[in-house]
Amino acid sequence: MVAEQLFIMSILLYAAGAGASLLLGKMDRHANYVAAITAFLAAVTGMAWAIPVLAGGAGFTLNFTGFIPFTQFVIRVDQLSAFMALVISLLTAATALYSLSYLEEYSGKGKGLLGFFMNIFIGSMILVVTVGDAFYFLIFWELMTLASFFLVSFEQEKKESTGAGLVYLIMAHVGTALIMLSFLLFVSKTGSFDFATFSEAPLSEGLKTTAFILAFLGFGAKAGIIPLHIWLPQAHPAAPSNISALMSGVMIKTAIYGIIRVGVDFLGATNYWWGVIVLLAGAVSAVLGVMYALAQHDLKRLLAFHSVENIGIILMGVGVGMLGAALEQPMLAVLGLMAGLYHLINHATFKGLLFLGAGSVLYRTHSKNMEKLGGLVKRMPFTAFAFLIGAAAISALPPLNGFVSEWYTYHSLFLAAKSGSWWVTLVASVVIVMLAITGALAAMCFVKAYGVTFAGAARSHHAETAREVPPTMVAGMFVLVVAIVILGVGAPWLVPAFTSVAASLLNQPAVPAAAGMIMYPGFLIQGTLSTPLMAILLVGLVTLPLLLVALGGGFGTGRRVDEAPWACGYAYNPRMGYTASSFAQPLRVIFRAIYRPQTHVKGPRYTSKSYFEGPVHYESHASSLWEDYLYKPLVAAVMRTGTYIQKLQAGSIHLYLLYIIIILVSFLLIATR
Amino acid sequence: MDYGKLILVGLLQAALIMLAAPLLDGISRRLRARIHSRRGGSIFQTYYDLFKLLKREETVPPQASWVFAATPYILVATLLLLAMIIPSITLMSPLGLVGDLFAVIYLMALVRFFFSLSGLDSGSTFAAAGSSREMMLAVLIEPAMVVVLLTLALLAGSTNLGSISVQVASGQISFLHPAFIIGLLAFLIATAVETGKLPFDLAEAEQELQEGPLTEYSGRGMALMKLALLMKQVIVVALFLALFLPFGGAVDITSGSLILGSIIFLGKLLVFYTLVALIENAVARYRITDVTVITSLSFGIALISFVFYLALS
Fold first, then answer.
1. Set of chain B residues whose Cβ sits within 8 Å of the Cβ of A577
2. Which residue among B116, B122, B310 places its CB closest to the CB of A447?
3. Chain A: residue nearest B71 by CA?
4. What's the CA gap between A211 and A262, in Å, rounded?
5. Cβ atoms within 10 Å of A54's Cβ, excluding its own
């Protein structure tokens, strides 16, 4: 009973926040405070209803009167919905705190409107994951898409924003159309829009596969699966950073929710091919996503590409889960799905944190170009620390949360490799290796992201004069730092809750995956892990080197700051420091088949004089395979078709009348036949 | 099983690896001198070096932040934890509960992450070049290592290192299994790359990069960083030994078998270091872009090993 009331309260708070913010539109500052505070309260309320549902296991259903005759507005909350709502609320709470000061940047640019769309955006996400009716699902899905579209193209004066907004709008609607088609298949067989009837839809095997593929592609476009990802690295960086955090942290997860809902809940994941498709799509997205990320020197664009990577890792877990369900191996199914869900909440925390960190850098330096930053750790110590924790977590370093979920992903894949026929072993092993490559690349990428942005010497005036961001922004980031540590070190106590979400979805009993301080994938002999023990031992073992130094007399001698790093005897210059491009250079050479790097040199060259005469402009960038070979030809083909169709439109009324008559006659012929 | 006792064994093992690392380095330095027809220093020279460094004043560049200062401690602590997990003097993993193969891979990544970050943090160009190479090398060699580890884990039915060691030592995983032998070969290359010795001394290339990420370290920081690098070499070799040549490790936890296990472990390390010293004096350093040849060879061999597993299972 209480959960229901809290749910309604939280939705009403989002609505109130949106409305108030719009009304206060003229009073910029107040609008911002009202929008952020209501969003924060709504998020806390959201957590207050989601956590008991997750812990207690009992969901609820809310029936509202049908506003529209053929369908019912029904809210149906099960464990998965509660889990998703918890993830959204957690990140919203942190982001709302952060927004209080962050939005000062947007003074005089219509903060009222920003607050309005932000609240609508979050509220519609909560409704997307809780609504129990296909018709309303699509309405809220569209509301979420449009609100985020307006947020992406909020900075109208920037060409980057409007362009990104357009690509996003197109991709999102192609996706929505596919989802709609998939739902219509169910509706055509059950005659109802109610999700509850979907799982009993009498679909033939062929139609089931069609429904799944349509939904997978449709949701995949939103999730950013390669090659449907092209909007993502444009749209996420273009939005204000608090919105980027929400888009990357949670919005793309609603697509994962959709894939699980359709594939596992409605269709029961009966066909093992679906699992394989999801698994391979995940693996490809993970490896290519992180490779593209490495080539970036725009901090937010780099983070956006990492969302593609992490969606891939989440899909690996989901894929194993679906494979397990199809092969009728409940343990495999539950573990795989659990690994995917665990990584989902983890990614929300660390990617949210990293985007907020990037936002803080942007707030103080007005630049997201890493080449122009550097040395910020001295000037923005809290931001730097939070970013480092996020970077360590996303690189899956133990004992933080990214490691735990990747560990379970590895083990679910390992279990799959052990339990099936040889082709399952092959597929699972290939994916394990791809996950390992992803891990190594991600670590490299985040050493680069942190190192080039925060460490070394400042490479621009803005970076030199930066200072720490206001306390509320720091607080917003530290909420997520705490979440990361709890989700990592406290994992053994949280895992049972996550397995129960996966198990309830598959109608299976819970699988043993943690006991006391130890985690294990189903069987103890498979392998064990204990992040709390690991954390204790790591902290404990630090005393040994400290002791060694103390015994060796190291603390007695001083510590002196010398004037500059060693530079071969030359005077040190900040430009000598490594930049993002130089750090990733060896990789760009070795994997040139993927990056296809292009360099442009302008100015005098290849002469003895060229060293002394005039500036030389050097430019190097990686080109996008997908845009050049998939989307550009596609757009060209559409344009060509368009020109042909244009010939029909001659501008003559007589001709149009002729068309109408021809069509009428042909319809009549068909009808009377 | 007595977990308390096992943790003690783990601590013992960690201490042994920490203490043996400089000695093994000293021996290999002496060997190198002999190959050069020099007399060479004492085999304890590395200890003397480390203790001298501990007493020296530390000088840091102005760009360095707390990451630079904390890295030596983080590295040594993580490597000690690794030393406790990898079964070396025993067949069982003393700290099997804390981690398995996948955890070991990611603890290694933790070491690499901070090692590399410290280079960037110092602001020095040489250090940063070393950092970039360190991460690059991981990207190149990790796939091969994972394929071999996965094949072994599949053979053993468990990712627990101790469980694999026991099965190899007892012959449950046949030494003659093609997947095992070929995997051994691939992992040997990977081990050589990971130890960072010639011809794979890329990140800390002394003559070229002034020891890479170590460039700006001095005094106690330098001492701990050097110690960490030496320990890392031993641990990488210990991992190879635990997986492929675990014979002679202690089966039960009695002081007699533990001492015997330690002696056998040290003996195996000594053989390995002697071989490495011979190789080190016969080859030149690879260029970073040429290393791909070796790493892809290693990956290819690893794949063959995996295919043998698939075909024979």
1. 63, 123, 125, 128
2. B116
3. A542
4. 8
5. 21
Angle (CA) A475-A480-A486 rounded to 5° is 125
Chain A residues in contact with B51 by the CB 8 A cut-off are: 552
Report the relative pairing of strands A60-64 and A617-622 from DSSP bridges: unpaired
Nearest to A418 among B143, B154, B220 (CB): B154
Residue of B220, B221, B166, B11 lying closest to B95 (CA atoms): B11
- Cα(A2)–Cα(B300) distance, rounded to whole angstroms? 60
Q: Are A254 and A84 in contact (CB under 8 A)?
A: yes
> What is d(CA A653, CA A671) in angstroms, rounded to the nearest whole number?
27
Across chain A, which has 673 residues, the per-10-residue mean pLDDT values are 85 89 76 87 91 83 77 87 93 91 73 85 93 90 91 79 84 90 88 85 86 92 86 84 88 93 87 90 92 87 91 94 90 92 94 93 86 86 93 92 93 87 88 92 91 86 84 92 93 90 86 83 82 90 87 77 77 77 79 76 65 68 75 84 81 82 88 74
How high is the pLDDT of residue A122?
93
The pair of three-digit structure tokens given for residue B140, joined into one six-digit string: 């190149």
The Cα–Cα gap between B168 and A418 comes to 19
Cβ contact B99–A534 (<8 Å): yes
Q: Are B56 and B226 in contact (CB under 8 A)?
A: no
Helices (H) and strands (E) in chain A, counts: 27, 7
Block residue for tokens 């992903």? A409
The whole-number pLDDT of residue A605 equals 60
Write the residue in A403, A455, A539 that is nearest to B106 by C-beta. A403
Task: Give the closest residue to A133 by CA, choosing from A54, A219, A66.
Answer: A66
Q: Are strands A597-602 and A60-64 parallel, antiparallel or unpaired?
A: unpaired
Which residues contact residue A667 at a Cβ distance below 8 angstroms, ignoring those fewer than 6 apart?
none
Q: Are strands A514-515 and A518-519 parallel, antiparallel or unpaired?
A: antiparallel
* Contacts A411 to B, Cβ<8 Å: 102, 159
Find chain B residues with C-beta within 8 A of A524's C-beta. none
pLDDT > 90 fraction of chain B, expressed in percent and rounded? 27
- Please give the pLDDT value at position B93: 82
B123 phi/psi in degrees, rounded to 5? 85, -5
ipTM associated with this complex: 0.92
Degrees, nearest 5: CA angle A300-A302-A305:
110
How many angstroms separate the Cα of A29 from the Cα of each of A33, A111, A113, A362?
6, 8, 12, 20
**Average confidence (pLDDT) over B208-233:** 86
Q: Do B61 and A565 touch (CB under 8 A)?
A: yes
Q: Is the preceding peptide bond at A470 cis, omega within 30 degrees of 0? A: no
Helices (H) and strands (E) in chain B, counts: 11, 1
In angstroms, the separation between the Cα of residue B135 and the nearest Cα of chain A is 5
Residue with tokens 């980027």: A244
Note the residue count of chain A: 673
- CA dist., res. A570 & res. A567, Å (int): 5
